[in-house]
Amino acid sequence: MGSEDDRLRKPSQQSTTMRTKLKILLLIVSTNIISIYLFSGAVLNINWPENAPRIHLWDNERLLRELNLTRYKLSHAQSSLSDLESKCSTSNALLESLLTELGRVHGDKAVSDELNGWPDELFGELKLAAGPHKLPLGFTSNIGSDELYPTMGMGCRNFQPEVIEYMTYEPGQECPSDDVFAQRLMLKGCEPLPRRRCKPKSPKNYVEPDAVPASLWKIPPDSSIIWDPYTCKNYTCLVNRGKAKGSYDCKDCFDLRGREKVRWLIENGKLDFSIDNVLKSKPAGTIRIGLDIGGGTGSFAARMRERNITIVTSSMNFDGPFNNFIASRGLVPLHISIAHRLPFVDGVLDIVHSMHVLSNWIPDTMFEFALYDIYRVLRPGGLFWLDHFFCLGNQLNSTYVPVFDKIGFKKVRWHAGRKLDRGIEKNEWYISALLEKPMY
Ligand SMILES: *[C@@H]1O[C@H](CO)[C@@H](O)[C@H](O)[C@H]1NC(C)=O
Ligand SMILES: *[C@@H]1O[C@H](CO)[C@@H](O)[C@H](O)[C@H]1NC(C)=O
Ligand SMILES: *[C@@H]1O[C@H](CO)[C@@H](O)[C@H](O)[C@H]1NC(C)=O
Ligand SMILES: *[C@@H]1O[C@H](CO)[C@@H](O)[C@H](O)[C@H]1NC(C)=O
């Protein structure tokens, strides 16, 4: 996976080539020094005797002496040479470690700046998707720059091999069918995803959708989507999944005649608030637009639509076409994760609702990010309906209540209740709360 530090330590391709070039240069320099050394005769002055070529075969003793002397000088030269060699290799090693050190202190940082935080150099479609791209008309004050970076999740850099795989496609042609892989990459932090230039596979025999309001509570035709990414291959299977074995996200959400049909209609004075009672806490008609975070198949938005309130629903396609289903109902799906900054400007939404998705699986810091972000996008007097927030008893007062208090919401309603379906000894709790962003 690789942290920022790991990536900085990893020698990049470019610094390696740079170092190789330097080494070759050093090798050439040292070889030349040796040659100059050898031929200048500084140490290896063998000093052939003047009469060396004129060997008098009869002068045996002299010949032997000269031979002895030559052998001696030769061995001396040999030892000098090996001495020099070892000195050279020592200095070579020293230089190499010096270069590595220099690279660490200096070079690698520059290289990683060049690669914009990617472990390796970018090519092709991914390089284009990463940008930057020069603005054809030059600097503009709206942007404060003369170039643009297409939006891409910073987390993509932590998964370069997967991102390369994801970005391997023919621009203009049909996209690879890899929704599950893509969504997982996105949920790991590569959000938004960088793929921009292919066409998703189109379902065969697509028919125009039903009209609102009939579409709100109707199961769409099987031919409206591509089923490749899902275990179920038709809506009948998804609708019946609630009663089937196995654990699935939002298991009974596709069954619009089941539990989904009565959600938020009945007030039980405890964890279940009704939409109408929540709306009554504000002057009539002042709740008009909002967001449902992790809204499954969009039934909350459907119920709000029936009250002329426009709700955008964020949802994930966890082994089911949740987003497509929401859209088929005539509602707006938003494919963003809980890690994503909410795509709204400050202070505009009348209501934010969230059921189940916000809970103790989220890292504390990110949970706080999410809550502050909800506070940010709500208008003054806007409502945050936290619906069935799950945590353990010991976390309730120690971790979560202080966070809610810290953000600055006003508590309109608050109910903490035990979740008993897995036994009281589990000490599992739900909080349902209606929180208001203060007017001032
Ligand atoms: C050869 O030279 C070595 C050292 O210079 C000397 O010890 C040896 O006696 C010499 N041998 C002959 C045969 O001259
Ligand atoms: C729906 O899919 C299931 C398997 O997932 C299959 O058994 C069933 O026959 C399908 N039903 C229809 C109406 O296509
Ligand atoms: C919603 O708006 C329509 C058209 O403006 C209106 O006829 C209807 O009564 C409204 N419904 C509610 C529940 O306010
Ligand atoms: C949390 O604190 C409240 C008020 O101080 C208390 O009534 C409640 O019992 C506590 N809940 C748990 C689960 O400890």
Automatic annotation (TrEMBL):
The chain crosses the membrane at residues 24-44. Keywords: Membrane, Transmembrane, Transmembrane helix. It holds the Pfam family Methyltransf_11. Residues 291-385 form the Methyltransferase type domain. InterPro entries: Methyltransf_11, Prob_Methyltransferase, SAM-dependent_MTases_sf. One of its GO terms (molecular function) is S-adenosylmethionine-dependent methyltransferase activity. It comes from the Eukaryota. The keyword Phosphoprotein does not apply. This is Methyltransferase type 11 domain-containing protein.
